[in-house]
Amino acid sequence: MKLLRISSAAAAAAVLLWMGSAAAAQMLPLLQNTRPDFTAVSQAQLETLHYLAHIFLKQQGEYPQSLRELRDSPYWVVEVCNFYTGLPIAQIPFVPKAEDYEYAPLPPTGAFPPTTGEGSEEGAEAEQAPGATEIAPASRRIDPRRVQFPSPGDLLYFTEGNALQLVIFDDSGSWQELWVEQPFNYHAASLRIAESARPQSDFLVAELAVHLERMLPGMYNRKLFLTDEKTFSPTELARLLPLSFERMAAELSLIYINPVKKRAFMRADYYSPGDLGTAAWLGEETMVYFLEAKRARTLLELTDQDVRREHSQAIARRDKLVARHANEVPPQPE
């Protein structure tokens, strides 16, 4: 079994961080992809978009009102590409009318659901019992069936109040959907920075690192499973990740973005803030991220105060090495 396979669209997408979309579009091949491939990729993309949108909400107090607002924000640290074209995913221009919505009543706050079958008289009486909390207003979502001729691989984006709806269509008109009535994303909500005095870009590097180390391996393994390929154990994935994350991401039509330099995130053999530190002089076997102000941290050192305290000596030693080598000229390509 080959370790990693890169689709032509995903490979072509990588150039979009280095050249214009128009030029890249001229080199895109015609693709033939299977439904399991689309299912795995679209699920990973929906989870990625939800994570990025929730980071935006965490920092700004509300969801972005459009995909463009999210992409233009500092929190866009993973480029999401159209599964079929390899171009950056676009928002489907759909303006819903009243008849395009579906309504899902929320359960009464603090009330228990009826214990009898649906539609029974006893159940109806239980729902209307004295003292029951009033039913909350209905939460609505767009019925994806109402979107006529959606562009395959692109995104239907809808947010209203606390709800967020994300839909990606395939080339047959079917779709994958993520819809949350109340904001919740564990990875985004739990993200904290351990150091109080630090550049703002530390948070963005940590945002990228959380997706890279805690989300990407599971997404990639799920794709292997859905496409009937051999999956890896968590230990194997952790071992493969430092040298294979670009290709794992490419299999899901994702590209990591250096949040400091605004170009493709990469392994760096020299001090390069926002990139993965792989310089030999670091002497590290774990994944370490170069940060502004001549520093380098692991994800746990960035986000866990206890780990930061436990690793204080190692952090100080590493930062001295970074400061010593920070002004070295990057190696020139041959």
Description:
The protein is of the alpha+beta class and 334 residues long. Among the domains are: 160 residues, no CATH class; 59 residues, no CATH class. Helix content is 36%, strand content 13%. The strands form four sheets. A four-stranded mixed sheet has the order 8-9-10-11. Strands 4-5-6 form a three-stranded antiparallel sheet, with helices on one face. Strands 1-7 form a two-stranded antiparallel sheet. The chain is globular, with a radius of gyration of 23 Å. The N terminus is likely disordered.
Taking the alpha carbons of the first and last residues, their distance comes to 32 Å
Helix content: 25-40%
- The structure class reads alpha+beta
Uncertain ranges = 1-8, 10-15, 18-32, 107-136
Number of helices: 11
Report the β-strand fraction as a percent range: 5-15%
What Rg is obtained from the alpha carbons, in whole angstroms? 23 Å
SSE order, one letter for each helix or strand: HHHHEEHEEEEHHHEEEEEHHH
